[in-house]
């Protein structure tokens, strides 16, 4: 698996440090409130697990699984809800936890779905952001690292379901996509 990586962009230590910082900011932001924290599966599962340990206010958790990339490196443009929430979101403060915002299509679709369900507020925290690739206007309320316009893997992010378990963010060798 490590042989398939061309370059490490963000190390495990850099990620750990950033997650602690984001947790502190969110704890201050939600002081005195009880947000529902929604993990967008599958990609955000590691970030979610690490982030919630750094949040000091009482929270509730839920999970939503969506997919639009399949086995490719470009969004299909169609966001599919594979698993919906178990919790009612009406009147709740919602914090969406994403691993990456790329085209922005996944989040703009999800925010629309949540707003139609009459949430009180919705904010987004993403660990990685690729602003150069946006096809819709969308910004996270809180974001960890800005990435270059390259397809990355690791720390939850996959290529064709592989490499999610790498503890860092890396770029794959081009022959992996083309072989
Ligand atoms: O801004 P966008 O272009 O929409 O890309 C971001 C989304 O794409 C990835 O999910 P994917 O569809 O690959 O599902 P996965 O999390 O199960 O890998 C990623 O985890 C984000 O949810
Ligand atoms: Mg994916």
UniProtKB/TrEMBL annotation:
<protein>
    <recommendedName>
        <fullName>Hypoxanthine phosphoribosyltransferase</fullName>
        <ecNumber>2.4.2.8</ecNumber>
    </recommendedName>
</protein>
<dbReference type="InterPro" id="IPR050408">
    <property type="entry name" value="HGPRT"/>
</dbReference>
<keyword id="KW-0328">Glycosyltransferase</keyword>
<dbReference type="InterPro" id="IPR005904">
    <property type="entry name" value="Hxn_phspho_trans"/>
</dbReference>
<dbReference type="InterPro" id="IPR029057">
    <property type="entry name" value="PRTase-like"/>
</dbReference>
<keyword id="KW-0660">Purine salvage</keyword>
<keyword id="KW-0547">Nucleotide-binding</keyword>
<keyword id="KW-0808">Transferase</keyword>
<comment type="similarity">
    <text>Belongs to the purine/pyrimidine phosphoribosyltransferase family.</text>
</comment>
<comment type="function">
    <text>Purine salvage pathway enzyme that catalyzes the transfer of the ribosyl-5-phosphate group from 5-phospho-alpha-D-ribose 1-diphosphate (PRPP) to the N9 position of the 6-oxopurines hypoxanthine and guanine to form the corresponding ribonucleotides IMP (inosine 5'-monophosphate) and GMP (guanosine 5'-monophosphate), with the release of PPi.</text>
</comment>
<comment type="pathway">
    <text>Purine metabolism; IMP biosynthesis via salvage pathway; IMP from hypoxanthine: step 1/1.</text>
</comment>
<keyword id="KW-0460">Magnesium</keyword>
<dbReference type="Pfam" id="PF00156">
    <property type="entry name" value="Pribosyltran"/>
</dbReference>
<dbReference type="InterPro" id="IPR000836">
    <property type="entry name" value="PRTase_dom"/>
</dbReference>
<keyword id="KW-0479">Metal-binding</keyword>
<dbReference type="GO" id="GO:0016757">
    <property type="term" value="F:glycosyltransferase activity"/>
</dbReference>
<comment type="pathway">
    <text>Purine metabolism; GMP biosynthesis via salvage pathway; GMP from guanine: step 1/1.</text>
</comment>
<feature type="domain" description="Phosphoribosyltransferase">
    <location>
        <begin position="13"/>
        <end position="159"/>
    </location>
</feature>
<keyword id="KW-0963">Cytoplasm</keyword>
């Amino acid at each position: 698996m490590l042989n398939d990586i061309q370059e490490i962009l963000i190390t495990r230590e850099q990620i750990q440090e950033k997650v602690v910082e984001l947790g502190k900011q969110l704890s201050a932001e939600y002081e005195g409130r009880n947000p529902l924290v929604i993990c967008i599966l599958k990609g955000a599962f590691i970030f979610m697990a690490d982030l919630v340990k750094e949040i000091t206010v009482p929270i509730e958790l839920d999970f939503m699984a969506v997919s639009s990339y399949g086995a490719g490196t470009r969004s299909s443009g169609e966001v599919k809800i594979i698993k919906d929430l178990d919790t009612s979101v009406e009147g709740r403060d919602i914090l969406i936890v994403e691993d990456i915002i790329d085209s922005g299509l996944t989040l703009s679709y999800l925010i629309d779905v949540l707003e139609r369900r009459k949430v009180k507020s919705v904010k987004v925290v993403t660990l990685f952001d690729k602003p150069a690739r946006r096809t819709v206007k969308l910004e996270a309320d809180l974001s960890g690292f800005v990435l270059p316009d390259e397809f990355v893997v690791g720390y939850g992010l996959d290529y064709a379901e592989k490499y999610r378990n790498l503890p860092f963010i890396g770029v794959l060798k081009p022959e992996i996509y083309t072989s």
